[in-house]
Amino acid sequence: MKKIHMTETVLRDANQSLIATRLSFDQFAPILHELDNAGYHSLECWGGATFDSCIRYLNEDPWERLRKIKMVAKNTPLQMLLRGQNILGYKHYPDDVVRNFIKMSVYHGMDILRIFDALNDFRNIEVAMDETKKQGAHAQGTIVYTVSPIHDIESYTKLAKQLENMGADSICLKDMAGLIMPQTAYDIVKNIKEATNIPVYLHSHSTNGLAEMAYLKAAEAGVDGIDCSISAFSSGTAQPPTESLHFALQSAGFDTGLKADSLKRINDFFKPVRDHFIKTGELDAKVLTPQPEALTYQIPGGMLSNMISQLKAQNAIDKLDEVLNEVPRVREDLGYPPLVTPMSQMVGTQATVNILTGERYKMILKEVKAYCKGEYGKAPGEINAELSKKALGEETPIEGRFADNLEPIFEKTKEELKDLTSSDEDVLSYILFPQIAEDFIKNKKKNPSVDQLREDIKADVI
Question: What is the mean pLDDT of residues 198-221?
Answer without folding.
Answer: 97
